[in-house]
Prior knowledge:
The chain is of the alpha+beta class. 25% of the residues lie in helices and 31% in strands. Mean pLDDT is 78; it is low at 129-142.
Amino acid sequence: xxxxxxxxxxxxxxxxxxxxxxxxxxxxxxxxxxxxxxxxxxxxxxxxxxxxxxxxxxxxxxxxxxxxxxxxxxxxxxxxxxxxxxxxxxxxxxxxxxxxxxxxxxxxxxxxxxxxxxxxxxxxxxxxxxxxxxxxxxxxxxxxxxxxxxxxxxxxxxxxxxxxxxxxxxxxxxxxxxxxxxxxxxxxxxxxxxxxxxxxx
Length: 201
């Protein structure tokens, strides 16, 4: 089994993912000509996932935009990333990756203060002032922080509910197909038993 690819995404900024996707073969289903491609971020502990639609280009290139997810996902947790393709009632997981989120670094600046030592008991005219710098300087990404708007939050919740409904529908279809296969198998076995019983007479 091949090791999964590890990718890091920003938790408080938008991310753009890309890959090449090729779909081959035919299907007799009416909706088979329209393939739904999406990228899902799944919590391996709870099984809950958030999905984002992918944009397919003519050359087979797929682009996925992942919005800021601060407040929805945890920075210290590892998630599963799934590139999924749905064609009619058929479901494929094309690629699986490990996804880790981290917050974008920020530059924080504070003033430099000059503190004199007030605890000295002897007067020293040659005493130098103490210079102390506070704060940390870190790298900063070029793009500006784009917090989630109310509309984006509603859209994320809507996508999550839609994905759950699609998952329930897919499982229901699988159960119905299993029931049909079981019924056919029982009918075939019954027919064979009757044939054997009649043959004995």
